[in-house]
């Protein structure tokens, strides 16, 4: 029996690469996709397309955060943009309070219910927006929560890309066959990427460093 | 301005007492109630009644765990019962994988969004069903997750009743004016408490130790 895992899949570069990576490591994967009221709801379609391309079953969890508190889920506030090509310092308004903690908690529940031994997440603390819930210390602490708070005890959160540069993530993904044309990054979620939000800028930088077409979507 | 907190409210003895306790400590409370497909859905009505009795605003979060994995959310499996008056050892089938982790993750999100400094939960590791996510070590680990993974950093999970006997919880609650007649404990969630599930037995024991009517509901 292959080892089972749950993979958090947003439909962006990092989570899509993580899914293909987990598969390449011999895991039988289940993808978990969240519809949490994000502005870029179209990333959900990308996530589904990626799961299908990877031939991995997926589930979509719909949640509602009635308290907002983030420009990513509150359409009355603005997504920060920059024309300089460099993202700002500090934690931007796109940070969603508790988001990764909620995602991981569902993934842990799923993993425990199906007897999976790992939860994969494409968190990255190198080319990222500065969110605290993308850093290694957070995942280390969460693994302790699992050890103390579950019946299974043996589930581990895996963050294989956490210290990898975006361009190296893409290089790895291309080797693994990730169809990046199906992925979506832009926070604004319009019909075309805006090109000026943090997520677009980080994506562009990754492709540009590999001398690939930055417009790949 | 009073300190703000979020209180996880199930409608049972422990969470109801915790809500009144947090109020008595000067917190401005927001109650968070979960509709997660529990068999004893009627505890939600108790939770609402308790929030109203405490004059505290509440929100209900509806979630769906499509993977089941617990007799508490899967009506095709049986709730364990005993006629001996003593609950069994080990973790029973009513354990819901990741449940408290999910509840707390939403509470953290809520707390961070409204600038609250505490999340109160009525977890108890003395008179309880043996769930791992009711023990102090779990909450200690989770506080580290908050410190590492939130922008606010200063939110603390408070478990004021974790080492208190059920009868002492009730004694405290009676002083604080908790209307226990409005609370609900039975896992089966019928029109009357079954009297033989773990939750009924623990409840009975608490009231009996105080020489109070065990049938109080």
List the helices and strands and how they pair.
2 copies of one chain form a homodimer.
Chain A: E1 4-8, H1 13-24, E2 28-35, H2 42-53, E3 58-62, H3 99-114, E4 118-120, H4 136-149, E5 156-158, H5 166-176, H6 198-209
Parallel strand pairs in A: 1-2, 1-4, 2-3, 4-5
Helix pairs in contact in A: 1-5, 5-6
Describe this structure in words.
The structure is a homodimer of 217-residue chains. Chain A is of the alpha/beta class and 217 residues long. The first copy, chain A, has a single domain, classed as Rossmann fold (3-Layer(aba) Sandwich), CATH 3.40.50. Chain A is built from six helices and five strands. Chain A has helices at 13-24, 42-53, 99-114, 136-149, 166-176, 198-209; strands at residues 4-8, 28-35, 58-62, 118-120, 156-158. In chain A, helix 1 links the parallel strand 1 and strand 2 (28-35). The termini of chain A are far apart. The mean pLDDT of chain A is 93. Chains A and B meet through strand 3, helix 3 and helix 4 of A and strand 3, helix 3 and helix 4 of B.
SS-derived structural category of chain A: alpha/beta
User: How is the biggest beta sheet of chain A arranged?
Assistant: 5 strands, parallel
Query: Strand portion of chain A, in percent?
Result: 5-15%
Chains forming the largest contact: A-B, 47 and 47 residues
**Please, what is the oligomeric state?**
homodimer
Domain module count of chain A: 1
Backbone CA Rg of chain A: 16 Å
Unreliable residue stretches of chain A: none
Instruction: Give the CATH H-level superfamily of chain A.
Output: HUPs
User: Secondary-structure element order of chain A, as H and E?
Assistant: EHEHEHEHEHH
List the strand order in the largest sheet of chain A: 3-2-1-4-5
């Amino acid at each position: 029996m292959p080892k089972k895992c749950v993979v958090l899949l947003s439909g962006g570069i990092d989570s899509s690469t993580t899914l293909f990576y987990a598969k390449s490591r011999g895991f039988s994967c289940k993808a978990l996709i969240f519809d949490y009221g994000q502005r870029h709801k179209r990333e959900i379609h990308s996530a589904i397309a990626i799961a299908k391309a990877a031939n991995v079953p997926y589930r979509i969890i719909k949640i509602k955060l009635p308290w907002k508190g983030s420009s990513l889920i509150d359409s009355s506030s603005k997504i920060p943009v920059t024309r300089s090509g460099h993202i700002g310092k500090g934690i931007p308004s796109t940070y969603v309070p508790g988001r990764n903690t909620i995602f991981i908690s569902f993934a842990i529940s799923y993993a425990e219910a199906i007897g999976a031994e790992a939860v994969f997440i494409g968190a990255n603390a190198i080319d990222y927006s500065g969110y605290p819930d993308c850093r290694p210390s957070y995942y280390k602490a969460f693994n302790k929560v699992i050890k103390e708070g579950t019946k299974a005890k043996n589930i581990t959160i895996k963050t294989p890309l956490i210290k990898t540069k975006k361009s190296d993530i893409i290089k790895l993904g291309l080797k693994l066959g990730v169809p990046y044309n199906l992925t979506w990054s832009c926070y604004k979620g319009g019909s075309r990427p805006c090109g000026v939000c943090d997520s677009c800028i980080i994506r562009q930088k990754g492709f540009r460093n590999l001398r690939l077409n930055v417009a790949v979507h």
